[in-house]
Structure formats: C-alpha cells, structure tokens
Specification:
The complex is a heterodimer.
Chain A (H helix, E strand, L loop, with lengths): L7 H15 L10 H25 L25 E3 L4 E3 L1 H10 L12 H12 L12
Antiparallel strand pairs in A: 1-2
Helix pairs in contact in A: 2-4
Chain B lengths: L2 H15 L7 E5 L9 E6 L6 E3 L2 E2 L1 H15 L7 E4 L9 H11 L6 E3 L3 H4 L5 H7 L4 E5 L2 E5 L7 H4 L6 H9 L13 H12 L7 E5 L17 H8 L5 E5 L7 E4 L2 E5 L41 E5 L6 E5 L6 E6 L4 E4 L16
Parallel strand pairs in B: 1-13, 2-5, 5-6, 8-9, 9-10, 10-12
Antiparallel strand pairs in B: 1-2, 3-4, 7-8, 11-12, 13-14, 14-15, 15-16
Helix pairs in contact in B: 8-9
Classes of the chains: A mainly alpha, B alpha/beta.
C-alpha cells in the first residue's frame, strides 16, 4: 500500500478552490432577469390553475365551488393563518380549513397537503389578499 | 300588526328559532288609521337550487328553501301573499326551476316572483316565464302599489355575443366575481313602462318596488349594482314613501337615498362577504349599513334569519331574528330621515363579529 505523503502545494490549491466556491465564484446563487421571469411565469401558471380550481375546477360531485361563498377569495383571510380555529379546537394552517370546505360544503375528499391542487388554491387565495399585512392568529 | 299579534309571532318564531336558522322575511304593512287595511307578507329569496344529475340536487340549498317554506306557513298572522326574490335556480335549468317550484308549491296562498340572473341567462328567461308569467308587472293591494322589475338584464351586445351555448353564457354570469361579466340593468323598455305605470298612482300612495339586484350602486365587480339605478330612482322620486326590497347580495344591507329606503333580504342558500372585504378594489357600501356578523362556516344556515318589515306610515322598520347572534332592529328614524339600527348604529356599540376585513 502506498503511503500518503503530505503535499503542501496540493493543500494550498484545495484551500483556494474551496475559498472561491464559498465566496460565490463557482457555486454562487446567481440568477438573471430571465430566471426571474421564468419563476414569475411558473407562479402565474399555478395562480391561473388555482383560479380555475377555485371556480369549479375541482370537479367535485355536487358541483358546489369555492367562489360561491368566497368571491375573489374574500372571507378566507390567508394573512391570519396559522390561527386558532375554534371549530377545529386547535391552531391550524390554512390548508386544513380549505380541506374542511372541500369535505363539507363541496362534499368531496380531502386533498393531501402537498397536492398541486392544494398549492394552487393557496396561491390564488393568497394572491387575492396581496399587500395585506401578515397578522397570524387574528380573528 | 298589533303588538299582541307581534308578540305571538315572536313567540312562535322563538320556538322555531331554537331548531335553527329561519331564512324568511316577514313584511308587515300597517296603513295607519283603523288598522283594517293592515296586512303582512313574507319574503323568501336566493335559494340557488342546484341540479347535480338524475334526481340529485345539492342538499344544503334544498334544506334552506324547505325550511323557509315550512316556517312561512306557520306565520301568525297569516301573510296575504309571499314574494320570492329571485335565483330559484343556480344555472337556470328546467330541472332546477321545477324542483324549486315544487318546494315552493308547499306555500299556502299566492306567491309573486322576481327574476334573478341565475334564472335567466341560460335561455334569456324563457322557461321561467313559461312557468311563472311576466318578469315585470305591478298590482295594488290594500292601498299599497307594488312594482316588480327585472333588474338583471344587461347590454344586448353581451347577451347576444357569439356564445358556444346558452349554458356557456349562464356560467359566465353565474360566476359572481367574473371579470368578463356584464353589469345589470333595468333597461329602457321597463323604465318606459314604469313611468307610465306610476302616472296613475297618487304621490301619497306608498310604493314598494321589488328587484333582484340593488337599485343602487355598491360594487360593480359583483353586480351589487344596477347600471341605470339613478334613472329608476328618478322615476320614484315624486312619491312620498318608497321602499325598494332586493335580493342578490345575500346579506343585511340598508340605505336611504332621498325619499327611497333600500333593504336587502338574506338568502336561503348561503351568505356573501361584504364587498369591502375584497382588498384589491374600492366599493361603496352604504355607510348606514351595520354589517351582519361574520358567518360561521360550521353552521350551514348561519347569516340567515327572520326579518319583519313594518311599513306603517309608509316607512320601513325591520326586525332581524338571527340564529346564534343577537337579534337586531333597524327602524326608520323620523329625525334623521333614514333607517338606523337601534342597538348597533353608534360605532361604540358595534361588536367584533360585525367587523369585516
């Protein structure tokens, strides 16, 4: 077996490369205007999907849709979540209340928290409250 | 209505009330003098009966209407007639109108109907009219002139644009927050008819107008709005006592514009948020209106309730009996010349659930 000899030059190179990487030269989280546009477009496509699902796109059997009680996402108050939901008897995030609506007035099955449709619904609801101050816990 | 009769009514109402919400309005017309011409009528509105398929309908909305019919029949004194304020159906389908009318057929006595946009836009009201007759008319009853208007018409260009189908047009108008929608209006033909209809009426005669949309401008984006509201108001201006009763908004609203008192009736189906809660736009809620409590979604009949409407002396007083909420009374205040809530009108008296945001 070949013995490992200490090589000061190689160590110096490693230190330089590592230093460059951590200072942003090689792996830096750099992004361009094109990136921002792409991310915004991704967001907007999910927003559009959320608007569709909110307005009857869930295809639940009884045909009742979210907008029937919440035009423009009103009276949901995403800025107040998580909050103590007295009817559930606990502090709950918004998606749990969305599922309550899906199960009860919409008479359908709950969506998993990470279901893309649940994400889209939250995007639409939150977007319609953009600019409103965050006030978690408020009733 | 005499005080004794009212107490009886309240007593019975209280007994029923224990069982749940009572989505019906009671209107009490007292003509003054001997009281011989006093009468009452009931008001039910916005049931949004929804057909799923076959013999399946959305149970929640059926329950609201069934309850209203049952409780109207128990009213004491017995109402002379009932008004239905529009939106029997959700999508104007014959199945929905027929199912709604079948439930309403349980009412004792005559029922008058107002056209709602959910009854209209699939076939421009053909089936509704075939079943119920004209969508605008007037009649006199014990000294009061009643007028019914179809206030949910819109621009011809929108109505007759190239739709894939009548249902496509219906779905567009059925979405309350549709940016591609179109504003409601009464239109030239009905305003011309109304002008002639009112020519023969004494200016002292109390006039009660029924429309589906508010004949005032609150928020255009949800059609809490009638585009030619000012023109209709101008026709009503010469009369001493005018009351406009409307549906569509699914909430407590009241206002006074000149000689005209405005009162919304609640829906039997579900309540709607106040437009001021949509943070992205401006709206013009009547400053007089003290909102109803924010609805509890876990109580499916919340934000509905009894409304007595007393038109003695030609001005309207309303009593709201609300489930799980403190009851309210909105009376016409002679001094200020408009309705006020007897408990909550002062800002200092308003309670947290009335704060919508």
């Amino acid at each position: 077996m070949k013995s490992i000899a200490f090589n000061p030059k190689a160590l110096a190179k490693l230190v330089v490369v590592t230093g460059v990487a951590f200072s942003g030269g090689v792996f830096a989280d750099n992004f361009s205007d094109e990136d921002v546009q792409r991310w915004q477009a991704e967001y907007e496509s999910v927003l559009k999907e959320g608007e569709k699902i909110f307005h009857g796109g869930l295809k639940n059997a009884n045909t009742v849709s979210c907008d029937q009680c919440h035009p423009n996402g009103t009276n949901i108050h995403p800025e107040t979540y998580p909050k103590f939901q007295q009817q559930l008897g606990k502090v709950a995030p918004m998606w749990e209340m969305i599922n309550w609506c899906i199960i009860n007035p919409l008479e359908s099955d709950a969506l998993p928290a990470d279901d893309p449709r649940m994400t889209a619904l939250q995007v639409y609801i939150t977007h319609e409250r953009r600019g409103v101050e965050l006030i978690p816990g408020k009733h | 209505m005499s005080e004794i009769n009212r107490r009886n009514f309240l007593k019975k109402g209280g007994a029923l009330f224990a069982a749940g919400a009572l989505p019906v309005s009671m209107i009490d017309v007292a003509m003054g003098g001997t009281g011989e011409d006093d009468f009452t009528f009931a008001y039910i509105s916005d049931s949004h009966i929804t057909h799923i398929k076959g013999n399946k309908f959305v149970n929640n909305w059926d329950h609201g209407l069934k309850r209203a019919v049952a409780e109207t029949n128990l009213m004491d004194p017995k109402p002379d007639f009932v008004f239905y304020g529009g939106d029997i159906a959700q999508l104007g389908k014959p199945e929905e109108i027929d199912h709604g009318l079948e439930i309403l057929s349980g009412l004792h006595g005559k029922t008058h109907y107002v056209m709602g946009e959910h009854d209209y836009y699939v076939d421009l009201g053909d089936y509704w009219k075939k079943q119920l007759g004209p969508d605008y008319y007037s009649f006199d009853h014990k000294g009061v002139h009643f007028v019914v208007l179809n206030s949910i018409l819109t621009h011809e260009a929108w109505m007759h644009k190239k739709w894939d189908s009548g249902m496509d047009r219906m779905l567009q108008m059925a979405r309350l927050d549709n940016p591609e929608g179109s504003p409601f209006m009464v239109g030239d033909a009905q305003r011309e008819w109304l002008s002639k209809d009112l020519e023969k009426i004494s200016k002292e005669t109390p006039v009660i107008v029924f429309s589906h949309s508010p004949l005032q401008k609150i928020y255009k984006g949800w059609n809490f709005w009638t585009d030619d509201a000012e023109e209709v108001q101008a026709l009503l201006k010469p009369f001493n006592k005018v009351t406009v009763l409307y549906g569509h908004v699914h909430q407590i609203q009241y206002n006074q514009i000149g000689n005209i008192s405005f009162h919304a009736v609640m829906a039997t189906a579900w309540p709607w948020p106040y437009p001021s809660s949509y943070s992205q736009v401006e709206s013009h809620m009547p400053k007089l209106t003290i909102p109803m409590n924010r609805a509890d979604p876990f109580f499916e009949r919340d934000a509905t309730g009894w409304q007595f409407m007393n038109v003695h002396t030609g001005n309207v007083d309303i009593e709201y009996l609300l489930p799980n909420n403190q009851n309210r009374k909105v009376s016409f205040d002679e001094k200020s010349g408009h309705p006020i809530d007897e408990t909550f009108q002062a800002v200092a008296n308003q309670i947290t659930p009335q704060k919508h945001y």
